[in-house]
Structures
1.
Amino acid sequence: SCTVTILANQKGGVGKTTTAVNLAAGLAHRKRRVLLVDLDPQANATSGLGVSPTEGGSIYRALLGEEKVIEKIQATTVDNLYLVPSELDLAGAEVEIARADNYLHRLREALQPVRELGRYDDLLIDCPPSLGILTMNALAAADTLVIPLQCEYYALEGLSVILRLMEQLKTGGVNPGIELEGIVMTMFDGRTNLARQVVEEVRAHFPGKIYETLIPRSVRISEAPSHGLPVTLYDPHSPGALAYKAFAREFIKRRLNP
Amino acid sequence: SCTVTILANQKGGVGKTTTAVNLAAGLAHRKRRVLLVDLDPQANATSGLGVSPTEGGSIYRALLGEEKVIEKIQATTVDNLYLVPSELDLAGAEVEIARADNYLHRLREALQPVRELGRYDDLLIDCPPSLGILTMNALAAADTLVIPLQCEYYALEGLSVILRLMEQLKTGGVNPGIELEGIVMTMFDGRTNLARQVVEEVRAHFPGKIYETLIPRSVRISEAPSHGLPVTLYDPHSPGALAYKAFAREFIKRRLNP
Ligand SMILES: Nc1ncnc2c1ncn2[C@@H]1O[C@H](COP(=O)(O)OP(=O)(O)OP(=O)(O)O)[C@@H](O)[C@H]1O
Ligand SMILES: Nc1ncnc2c1ncn2[C@@H]1O[C@H](COP(=O)(O)OP(=O)(O)OP(=O)(O)O)[C@@H](O)[C@H]1O
Ligand SMILES: [Mg+2]
Ligand SMILES: [Mg+2]
């Protein structure tokens, strides 16, 4: 059966897209069948996989119940990895969805047929840097939440905000089944005290929730999107690629032994 | 008279807050009277200046016309620098403002009395990482726009989006007076090809609009917020502090000779 995992954090630039793309690729390289949904109007996950956003090509119309998600699924240059791309107009969807009935469950409803299809092992969703309607819909549709967390002070400050919101949606009945699957530390530079302090702080406050794999700061990771490739294909033996492959292994292992 | 300058870029984590706080401090150190408005519900500029967000302490009620901005202004530990702090509830304001009359000009109207007060030379506004109602209000209220741009591929992709929106608001009559004051490159690491390529690309596409000062990646910059200080006070002779002081000088110089 298919698990829906969302990559969310309202803090900007913490590595949501980079983790969504490279975790999706890492899982696909291990022969899991993966669908990545780009829910960010910036469409970075889309261009990061070498796909050009097209008007009407995103999940926008499906969120309004006018089209099916299945029609938007495209193959990518990565075997076993499929994509529902984003488009700029998706930003306009926030206002339209807010006015629709059942506005928090539009995504959950749109993805239901994809879950039932049984074609994918993992359905990952990349979220925009806000806690607006699109991210709320992702939280309402998710089985699990993975929070990419940059090893920085401002990023640490925002962690409690999204966790509190997840709890509210869980206990409030919007999504009783959602669980925090884990926190993955990104752009870790072991030479700085700040990075080590942030990791220690998160380990202390969220024991058992932080992945062992720390994603290092690595310029090859930030170069890969301009080639439309995950770093695991752009430079397979670079520290960044090795880290994301290790993360994919750890992600699967923890999934099997929670 | 007072100039309203906004720091905006929908791409997350590009240095909007860091630039807002350190430019504000740099201008204040040069004896300009500066008011910084934190328009991001994350309240990073607020905590970056050592101020704790308080319920009702932000511009939220003033955007709905229920209270005055002047009542929210606080002094900071930096001479000549004053702050209108943010609060978490500001996120809820987006929905409420969207339903209000004249919803794009709520901020402009709220700031009008502050402009007329004549107490500040510069009014800076830190924006959230989105092009939602709060950032739209900032674009409608601004005299000038400064875009912090991280030297990364994804950041470069998003540049045309905010510029197009600014043009639409300008020609569409929402804010005929807004001008792009400049683009400041942040987290520049001269050792990487990517950073140099991004700078060259921006220089080629936006001649005359990119500040000469390149803000280097510097861990002291990212440590400063945890001490509630701008880097210009936290470590005044560090490369990051020197760069932001140089940026403040260049900002003033270009303002005088556009
Ligand atoms: N481990 C890393 N090492 C170096 N650069 C990285 C790393 N992870 C991400 N980056 C770069 O940092 C920037 C921010 O990452 P990314 O865009 O994935 O964050 P995000 O959280 O998705 O941002 P947004 O909030 O805008 O959606 C990008 O330019 C990306 O290429
Ligand atoms: N020049 C720099 N060198 C090193 N770190 C920096 C630099 N500028 C900003 N940072 C750090 O990078 C992170 C992102 O910067 P910042 O929060 O200012 O960006 P932002 O655009 O305001 O983010 P958001 O989109 O979430 O509002 C922060 O943790 C900050 O401390
Ligand atoms: Mg992203
Ligand atoms: Mg910010």
2.
Amino acid sequence: MRLTRVKIFGFKTFADRTEFSLEGGVVAVVGPNGCGKSNLVDAILWGLGEGSIKHLRASSSQDVIFSGAQARKQVGYAEVSLCFDNEDGTLPIDASEVWVTRRLTRAGDSEYSINRQSCRLRDVVELMADSGLGRAGYAIVGQKEIDQALAASAEDRRGWIDEAA
Amino acid sequence: MRLTRVKIFGFKTFADRTEFSLEGGVVAVVGPNGCGKSNLVDAILWGLGEGSIKHLRASSSQDVIFSGAQARKQVGYAEVSLCFDNEDGTLPIDASEVWVTRRLTRAGDSEYSINRQSCRLRDVVELMADSGLGRAGYAIVGQKEIDQALAASAEDRRGWIDEAA
Amino acid sequence: TRDKFVNTFNAVRDNFAVMFTRLFGGGSAELSLTDPDNVLETGVDIVVQLPGKKRQPLQLLSGGERSLCASAFLFALLKHKPAPLVVLDEVDAPLDGRNVERFAEALLEFSEFIQFITITHNHTTIAAAPTLLGVTMQEPGVSTLVPMRLPDSVSG
Amino acid sequence: TRDKFVNTFNAVRDNFAVMFTRLFGGGSAELSLTDPDNVLETGVDIVVQLPGKKRQPLQLLSGGERSLCASAFLFALLKHKPAPLVVLDEVDAPLDGRNVERFAEALLEFSEFIQFITITHNHTTIAAAPTLLGVTMQEPGVSTLVPMRLPDSVSG
Ligand SMILES: Nc1ncnc2c1ncn2[C@@H]1O[C@H](COP(=O)(O)OP(=O)(O)OP(=O)(O)O)[C@@H](O)[C@H]1O
Ligand SMILES: Nc1ncnc2c1ncn2[C@@H]1O[C@H](COP(=O)(O)OP(=O)(O)OP(=O)(O)O)[C@@H](O)[C@H]1O
Ligand SMILES: [Mg+2]
Ligand SMILES: [Mg+2]
């Protein structure tokens, strides 16, 4: 399966509707400090069902909703939609294209959907499990993960080999 | 007081006798990965009496002695000498120039001297205390310290202000 | 599952040895079992010998060496079990000129079967990437995307 | 000692506000006491407002923003109580082009009363530094120093 399209609204600094496609290969994301590059990655992670707000650099769930800028008011919800090409059937669902959407309102209401069918967070997490994405996978690597890879105990390292089995 | 000269022998990758002077201003230390830049800094920290081998990326004290390379045999000891200009009398010693030397042999014997007078580690540490150098000071800053500065608790941060008092 | 681990370990171990030498332009490294007789519970250790140097404990490695070594391990896992998407957030920051070139080449090779998103400030990585996605704040505090180089334009 | 802390805090707080705005080219930041009525035990908090943005909790800051903010705090302490020697090990690695320029300028200004040794791979920092000390391994595994630019040569 491949992630092919990403749609973001109201997530962190992405106050406006934002879309992009991924066509394979290496995409280098560039821009000045604080412009939103890591936030873009956070959006993908959150869309995949990331449960731990610490991994999103937040202290409360609603921290991920755009809270305004000096010349822009805050918005009422954050929403991320991820589109997967499932031609090879890796995702355990009978569809060649799979849209996963996650929304969170300021009031704290969460909504999830798979191909427009409302579902629960655990359904999204289960769909993604064993795809190599989401927390079980080693899909998102920053300086912390790099440091950990070597500083980790021999047991932890064995765990990663188990996950690649 | 100012650090003016550094002499290194047998410390980590500095297998040969190495000397340099510091003339004030900004010195940029450059070179490829693994060539010895951070080791140079470790040498200064060690020369000042650094007691914690973790801060030197070592697991045993003798790890800091040059252990050899593919075409070079190991050496038997590590030695670092630091020369301070003490014209302004900041260091509590009656001398306008102060040499501090530290040596460690593979057998585990440690020697310290101040202006060629043999002394103990604690004498070096006490000499340096309150100079802004050594562990009490904030003289050596890497990515970890930067992360800590912001991640630290409000109490720790107050501690740094106390140290600057 | 015992065989599964052993097979996976052997494959990843071989991949790691190859990727390490490739990324460092020399030297050698090994994954080893801490307890070979107890395969169900054994841990996995890393031993490295950098080009021209002797074997050293991992802690003594430099920042860039650690980063490149960890990348070799990541590539070794990915070669065995590719993830469809791998996001790298400024992992090339500690690498010097030669190392970042070899790292970028490895990324390009692996990108035949893995989608990489690599956040970077590094000019070598930027020059090597076929696709660039710019993120800007025209309006302060609000991010917008600026596609800067499309996959079919082969111009630098 | 109560007055000593208050005086030190006030000075560092003022320095921090100035250095933050200088390094970020805008915005504002404050040090604040968590417990102003209990000066002997109070902690010290940081609140920042980046240029064009609203106040945000520190955790939401980007890698580069955190690094620059911590540098502002370091400079604030040093302005009050200079250390004779300050060693920086690749702290400019997460900074973009504009931020690293402002950081280098601050280093130069503070270097009138502080000796800085800054380990760096960054071309802006290297160009700005009056003195360069090269470290090489002509012989693998063995470090040697190569003075590359002396303080009195003002040529780039
Ligand atoms: N909910 C939110 N509302 C508004 N702004 C936010 C929100 N969450 C985070 N931010 C802002 O996003 C910015 C951080 O963005 P991000 O981490 O993506 O930067 P970056 O491009 O990765 O930068 P760097 O190169 O420094 O790593 C911070 O300035 C932070 O204040
Ligand atoms: N006692 C020792 N004997 C021999 N080599 C050593 C010893 N201690 C450390 N080393 C070697 O020193 C190297 C690390 O050097 P150092 O940390 O100074 O690199 P660096 O120039 O800071 O590189 P980077 O730019 O990647 O941070 C490692 O290759 C390590 O194996
Ligand atoms: Mg970032
Ligand atoms: Mg280093």
